[in-house]
Design goal:
- The complex is a heterodimer of chains A (637) and B (189).
- Chain A has 637 residues and is of the alpha+beta class.
- In chain A, 35% of the residues lie in helices and 19% in strands.
- Chain A has helices at 2-13, 20-41, 82-99, 110-123, 128-136, 142-146, 163-167, 172-178, 203-213, 225-229, 299-310, 340-349, 358-372, 396-408, 425-434, 445-454, 577-592, 603-612, 621-636; strands at 186-187, 193-197, 246-255, 258-270, 281-288, 318-324, 328-336, 378-385, 411-418, 439-442, 462-473, 480-484, 504-507, 511-519, 546-555, 563-570.
- A six-stranded mixed β-sheet of chain A has the order 7-6-5-8-9-10, with helices on both faces. In chain A, strands 1-12-14-4-3 form a five-stranded antiparallel β-sheet.
- In chain A, helix 2 crosses helix 3 (82-99), helix 11 (299-310) packs antiparallel against helix 12 (340-349) and helix 17 runs antiparallel to helix 18 (603-612).
- With 189 residues, chain B is an all-alpha fold.
- Chain B has helices at 15-23, 27-49, 52-69, 79-100, 120-134, 138-149, 154-161, 165-187.
- In chain B, helix 4 crosses helix 7 (154-161).
- The chains are: A alpha+beta (637), B mainly alpha (189).
- Chains A and B meet through helix 1, helix 2, helix 3, helix 4 and helix 5 of A and helix 1, helix 2, helix 3, helix 4 and helix 5 of B.
Amino acid sequence: MTDDIDALKAALKASPPARNPARTAALSAALRAFDEAQDSRQGLPHGLRHTADRPERAGLLKGCLAMLSGLKLKPVLAATTSAAALGLVMVAVLPNLDQGPMRQLPAPSAPVAETAVVQMDTEAVADDAPALRKAMAPDTGAVAAQAPAVMAEPPMVADGDLPEAERFGVETEGEAYANAAPNPVRSTAETPVSTFSVDVDTASYAVIRAMLNAGQRPDPQAVRIEEMINYFPYAYPAPQAGGAPFLPSVAVMPTPWNADTRLVRIALQGRMPAQEDRPPLNLVLLIDTSGSMDDPAKLPLLKQSLGMMLGELRAEDQVAIVAYAGSAGEVLPPTPAAERATILAALDRLDAGGPTAGAEGLDLAYRLGARMKQAGEVSRVLLATDGDFNLGPSDPAALADYIARQRDSGLYLSVLGFGRGNLDDAVMQSLAQSGNGTASYIDTVQEARKVLVDQLTGALFPIADDVKIQVEWNPAQVAEYRLIGYETRALRREDFNNDRVDAGEIGAGHQVTALYEITPPGSPALLNDPLRYGPPSSAEADPGAELGFVRLRYKAPGETKSALIEVPVLADAAADPDARFAAAIAGFGQLLGGASYLGDWGWDQAIELALNNRGDDPFGYRIEAINLMRLAQNLAR
Amino acid sequence: MQMNSLDSAPEGPTDSGLALAAAAGDRVAFATLVTRHYDRIFGLCWRLTGQRAEAEDLAQEICASLPRRLQSWRREAQFSTWLYRVIVNAAHDARRRSATRGRAAAGWGDWEIARQATMAEDRAAQDWLATAMQSLPPDLRDTVALVLGEDLTQAQAATVLGLSEGTVAWRMSEVKKRLRALAAEEAHP
């Protein structure tokens, strides 16, 4: 009988070795968390790393790579904050540690240790039991920075209650974001100003779609309404050439689910470089053909995706293909995009097998790219992988550095992720960031079409960083308001003017949509009683007056100083079908997330509203959403 | 005879020295500590989940939580024991979270077959391991991961799990019983 035990023991002992990319990512995450804790101990502004609290990894449920700024290897990005500066120290230290951690390290000196003991004695909670419980409690602080909101759940022990939590920089506000309940209705008299960061992620929608298509009701925690709304393209007015990088617009309409309130839509449209004006493109496809790519969701999907993309290229563009597995090799020499059959045949010949040699492949791809490049042309390496990117002798920072140098010489890099399980999102994100490109995750042919066909020309370059929105409501016109979604993106009012506080980025052609539900004074829909001692409410509301005022702050990429855009919210800003479709999606999200403001308004009404405002929907995203609503309705029964 | 100490300090500063320095803000000490223990963290995560990607995610989550958790570490507790407890609790949390997500997550295994495990023999060993682990309820699995996978004594495992030594002993005999049943089943399907 002990044989069984011994066998089990031997099998358990033969655990797979830890992989280097995962180790590097974990160590980076640990050091970043360490720095954040130190920063807040030193009283650096709390909100500086607001984005680190964003539930980026939610997408990882489905392996979504996009916008994983929480996992960025900050050091390889532009150093604009102290966070990045601290991160630089990190990469300088890590390689040494890998080789021989003990050698250069001074043993902690006695004074240090003593200080620590003293601190712990005075600062730790008096009794052992709570401290122990805290140690054993699920993590919601540093982990919240990494864990997706959908995975987050109420902590067993409210960390905020423990004095040391504050002192040691547990970002309690961050925790609240990650677990955020829907925004409540706010009274304008008490809180006239609402501030949040833009968000162009769409991961939540992809997760919800996957769950519904698998016949499951999505977990309400997985629902982030802003990411659902922002998944869809809308026809927003574009900014003028030479002006600000994006143009805000405002629309006001009756609320579908409440006759006594109105919805205000705030929309941003990022500048889109004119397609005809774009210079010829030299594309080097760097394709991972290692053994792990042998999966229907990987190499075959990759071939299909890139095949679709070829249709978007112009005759003067050029394509070359490099495959990397055991050794890297040129599969297709630079070929005009017009010779589609040749390129497709080369793609078709790709076969998975062998270990990965990413660094060598990258080098070969860049050499090909440099050969193809002529004055006035754009060259880009498109790395397609399942993420098991063997970095070879170089560490991620050196590799990112290499990519950044190539970028400066005009060779850009974007990353396409396929499949789930191997994805080393931190490295991929850092490579794409250094290469002035994007990292996208492709799980279905539909998604491939969206990323590589519909939106290929957009999203190549960021056009604005740290974009923040602040809305001040006019108490004479708006007694109560509620921001729908953006719970995890809330900023403090004073953060708006603080250029050190990080916020979301907008890429070329990106769109951002936010919806507020507002209630006029005296409306039967008011949920809060007026304050007994509040200021007297102004007399008759002037219908032409402003409902509120929108302020936007953004930085041009690489800048440290923000610029301001202001636009009033006028009551007569008429709504379009796009706004009503967005309202239908907001309703969809609220129905999934446990609606508390919708009254009798339900699936039938949401579906009808979406159907009536489908617009021309050339890509079918909207009808797909409507079918998902139908599916959700059936599952809800 | 000295009690088998789990803290690893073949040379250089001890774990507890590093942990104290790290809690006091010594970055190098913290980096050393995490680098030293990453493989152990990943290893136990893998033994608890049976899934490589999940184990990697979990290990990263744990590493990122360490700066904060270290603040509540007391010198009285052996560092490794404390770390094991942190890992086991994080794995429990992850299990609960995936249960609420509605993913089929209670199982052990269904890991991606490691690339190097293409040899049929390895494959068979892994299949057997997955079957054996899946036949055990989660609390027995955790106990097995600690006692067999990490070579903890039953007393140490009891400390990590917050149980009495007797409970761990009972669990291990239960494991033997179940493995026996499994073997019988395989012999006479």
